[in-house]
């Protein structure tokens, strides 16, 4: 399964939050009990610089039986963002160690006016 393309926009100074549900071919939620996930945002695919990173327990919460992955970047973290565009991907690791890249795409920043 190829990673689904999904571009995101982060509003500087605001909490960014999204929840996705992993489903199988029949549309049923996949039980993610025991899984972990991580997400990195970088200036470009080739860059060694990590601009922002989320992981299970640190910005990522997995609700196993429901197949849900919740992603959160705090308002404090988004306030400190000083880049204008980047790329990201989100990987899911199964209990046995298999890694699946779920999402990938571009990250845009909407600058904060009210400070």
Automatic annotation (TrEMBL):
This is Uncharacterized protein. It comes from Actinoallomurus vinaceus. It comes from the Bacteria.
